[in-house]
Write a structure and sequence with these properties.
alpha/beta; Rossmann fold; 2 domains; eight-stranded mixed sheet; 27% helix; 30% strand
């Protein structure tokens, strides 16, 4: 509980008991465009170990974006999803993450989106949908059409729009210091998951005091988000520089609690 261990993902996972982890939130290296600290991430054995350690009803939130290789998107996410499926994971949902940051990109539209694949071991144990979307037409009545299996609409449901509604599957965030990360040195380090994204995933798919595992701990974002939501964390990270940033951030987060 509440440990950052400097080790490779496979090394750390080897010591985790079977069916003991309720939630994994991780953002592994996207392809081989960057080799952080010279540490190569080996996807298949890590995915297999995640299937072993995740508990029934447990969830893996896998944050990913295809990289551009030889002028083409790598399609790595397709291969990863198929492998997760062969292991037995269910693809519960895909959340699209949009960052409001733009820069010129030659010969293609600049990519502002990445994906979180919400993978479950059977029926998900916990799903806490976030209710934070303000409806512009609150109080008005709407008729919702319900279609039968033949595609024809024969039924209607009358509902009153509430002031605050649930999110959809597109989550939008602002980038930059104090928006993405409270630690400027860690932000400039370049292996930072958005703090609010990690927090929202933890809130959505775990309960109070649950343990959250990140096999690619980076600069400690998942741990910081776990502490801020009343959860416990376990992080694996091999890179010396990332561990240094993570230890500082986690110490500050603990003091702030």
């Amino acid at each position: 509980m509440n440990k950052l261990i400097q080790c490779e993902a496979l090394e750390g996972l080897a010591d985790v008991p079977p069916a003991s982890i309720p939630l994994v939130v991780t953002s592994p290296p996207w392809g081989k465009t960057r080799i952080f600290g010279g540490h190569v991430f080996d996807f298949k054995p890590v995915a297999s170990e995640l299937w072993r350690v995740i508990e029934p009803g447990g969830i893996v939130c896998w944050h990913h974006q295809d990289q551009i290789e030889n002028g083409s998107e790598s399609c790595e996410h397709c291969h990863q999803l198929l492998y997760f499926e062969r292991l037995g994971f269910r693809r519960h949902q895909t959340i699209t993450v949009v960052y409001h940051k733009y820069k010129p990109t030659p010969r293609r539209y600049y990519r502002v989106a990445s994906q979180v694949y919400v993978l479950t071991k059977g029926e998900p144990r916990i799903v806490n949908r976030i209710n934070d979307v303000r409806n512009t037409n609150a109080g008005s009545q709407r008729d919702q059409k319900l279609r039968d299996k033949d595609g024809l609409s024969r039924r209607r449901m009358h509902r009153v729009n509430q002031e605050i509604g649930y999110r959809g599957d597109v989550w939008e965030y602002l980038n930059g210091w104090m928006k993405m990360c409270e630690d400027l040195a860690a932000l400039e380090h370049g292996s930072v998951m958005h703090r609010d994204l990690a927090r929202d995933l933890i809130r959505s798919y775990s309960g109070a005091t649950d343990l959250v595992l990140d096999v690619c701990g980076g600069t400690g974002t998942t741990g910081v988000a776990a502490l801020s939501t009343g959860r416990q964390y376990l992080l694996f990270e091999p890179w010396d520089e990332a561990v240094e940033h993570a230890e500082r951030r986690l110490a500050n987060a603990t003091l702030n609690m």
